[in-house]
Design brief:
Largest sheet: none
Low-confidence stretches: none
Number of strands: 0
Number of helices: 1
Distance between the termini: 118 Å
Structural class: mainly alpha
Order of helices and strands: H
Strand content: under 5%
Length: 83
């Protein structure tokens, strides 16, 4: 007895639709993944810039304090340490 051709056509149509949806979903996931990676990259770059700036500020502060210490010690050279 031959199979009913209508269900086979419906099955083929449903299979095509499912494959199309799968392709769309895959593309959407890839696009969102790329966007997420770009957003994370931008955030990390901004955070790195803030950290680098803060490190530079701290280096300048340390240099300033070192200069004050050297100046204070230079003024004490040759003086009696008990004074």
């Amino acid at each position: 007895m031959p199979e009913n051709p209508i269900p086979e056509r419906e099955l083929a149509a449903l299979t095509r639709r499912m494959e199309e949806m799968e392709q769309r979903l895959t593309g959407l996931i890839q696009t969102n993944g790329i966007q997420l990676a770009m957003t994370l990259g931008e955030r990390l770059a901004a955070q790195e810039a803030r950290i680098t700036s803060r490190i530079e500020e701290l280096k300048q502060h340390i240099d300033h304090r070192n200069a004050e210490i050297i100046e204070a010690l230079s003024g004490r050279v040759g003086q009696n340490p008990d004074q």
